[in-house]
Amino acid sequence: MIDLGKFNTAKIAENTAEIELKFNGEGTGIYFTVKSDYETGAMAEARKRVNKKIAENAKGKPAVITAEQLNKERAERLSGQIVGWRCGELKDEILIDGQKVKYSKSAAFDLLSREGFFWIASQIDEFVGDIANFMKA
User: Fold this and answer.
1) Closest Cα to residue 88, out of 41, 27, 31?
2) Model confidence pLDDT, tens digit, residues 90-130
3) Cα 106–72–13 angle (5° rounding)?
4) Digit-coded pLDDT (tens) for 15-55
5) With 73 labelled, which of 6, 15, 45, 128 sits at a CA distance of 20 to 30 A?
6) Is the pTM of the predicted complex or chain greater than 0.85?
């Protein structure tokens, strides 16, 4: 008999995982360490965002959302799930336009908000939504 409890993902969701960014199908050597969409903190943030929107709608505020707001919200959400990055011999740093950038949540938000870097947010968004990426071998 199989116990469904063996497949409870709550503990798995607390793991972090590393994603190598790919560009044009090739690895870049740039790695981001991320938390799952299902990690306790990420879930709490998601509930807070939803509750805020519900409260705004209950007050009769029109649900006007712009593409810019959606992009900002996505960058905020994903920057909260990035917990580190590295590139080659640079530990906790990456190069952006020739400048070393040390990891911080703010630096992650700035990167994900920049024009022309949508592909990074897309890869991270897809990766953090797949719980299988957080299962340790």
Assistant:
1) 31
2) 889 999 999 999 999 999 999 999 999 999 999 999 999 99
3) 70
4) 899 999 999 999 999 999 999 988 888 888 888 888 887 88
5) 15
6) no
Alpha carbons 53 and 75: distance in angstroms, whole number: 17
* Bridge partner list, 30: 87
Structure tokens at 46: 């998601």
Q: Which residue has the higher pLDDT, 118 or 6?
A: 118
Pairing of strands 26-35, 99-102: unpaired
Q: How far apart are CA 130 and CA 113, in angstroms?
A: 23
Instruction: State residue 135 phi and psi, 5-degree precision.
Output: -80, 125
Name the residue with tokens 């630096």.
107
Question: How far apart are the C-alpha atoms of 21 and 30, rounded to whole Å?
Answer: 6
Give me the pLDDT at residue 137, please: 57
Beta-carbon count within 10 A of 30 CB: 19
